[in-house]
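Hi Prof. W.,

I finally got the Methyltransferase domain-containing protein prediction working! I wasn't sure whether to trim anything, so I left the full sequence exactly as given:
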Amino acid sequence: MTIPTDPSYGYTEMDSEDARAASRHYWDNEAPAYYAEHGEFLGDVDFCWCPEGLRESDVRLLGDVSGRVVLEIGCGGAQCARWLATQGATVIATDLSAGQLAQARRLNEDTGVPVPLVQADAITLPVRSESIDIACSAFGAVPFVADSLALMREAARVLRPGGRWIFSTTHPFVWCLPDAPDANGLVVFHSYFDRRAYTEHSAAGEPLYIEAHRTMGDRIREIVAAGLVLVDVIEPEWPEGHDQVWGQWGPLRGQFVPSTSIFVTAKPH
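And this is what came out:
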């Protein structure tokens, strides 16, 4: 069994300011390497929800986006936003990281499918209230904010009545398992109920990367507290023939446990 023991890894209480600083630092530095590793799988003009390869072109969780105003929160390289633009949507793509947005600008130029890019914190979006038809995030901001209830409320604020907020994030059960896609990742070693953030620290103790944890119940309560209605929860199964390993995601562990959860919510009329 592989269990993280390096003192630079751990679980700590994390406030919004520290989480914001750590995420900005990490993604500003890692954006090019992340794209080099995962860009081909994601596609430059495609909407991939998760490492299982679930694509919006197949599942249509957002519905018909033609003529709709769509906000992507935590857009990274803005691959999803570009795909949405090709489907007739008016798109705004936001991200906290200048490094990710620099990558997105390069892809705008390379693909010839430019989308507007805005640097913004997901919990304080520079977007007018009730101006968005659909908000979405594919492993964007949600796993990395300390106050995910604030993010749910911010998504609800910008949505028009009847609008949808749909996001994918790490499945809560994965919190219990080592970060390994093989048999080592099938042993429970950490409490599902430990809400402290997973953190990576410098030698001086400065947080360099954080990933926040919420249980399934926490997620649902936050959605409801934000005034949204939970429409569906998708736990993608690992597809047959898909053998690409992505961090802790892989075909062996994927046969037994879900690693992704996708929450479909709506703002009441």
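The helical segments are 16-42, 56-59, 79-86, 98-111, 148-158, 216-225, 251-254. Does that look reasonable to you?

Thanks,
D.
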